[in-house]
Write a structure and sequence with these properties.
The chain has helices at 3-11, 13-24, 26-98. Helix 1 (3-11) packs across helix 2 and helix 2 packs across helix 3. It is mostly helical. Residues 25-80 form a coiled coil.
Length: 105
Amino acid sequence: MNLSFVWETQIHPKAHEAALEARASPELSDRLQQLERDVARHRDEAAKAQAEVDRLLEILKEMENEKNDKDKKIAELESPFRQVGIICREREKIACLAHGEKISP
């Protein structure tokens, strides 16, 4: 049994009907071929667009990772300065207390 015949008649009856109509009318046949070409072209364009989306998402992911790495490095570099700032504020509080001044929070 011809697989094409099985597909057209049993699996997809509408495709079989369309094939019969296309055989009956050359205009319909030409139109059907043009539409099939259009569908193939649109599928190709969609596949290319999806590939571009995937590529751009990968770039975005890499950029986010780089940003996170830079933020971590900045935090590491700022950490000693924060500690020095805390120490200086504590020393100022001690100096104020030693002189009997009020400490503002």
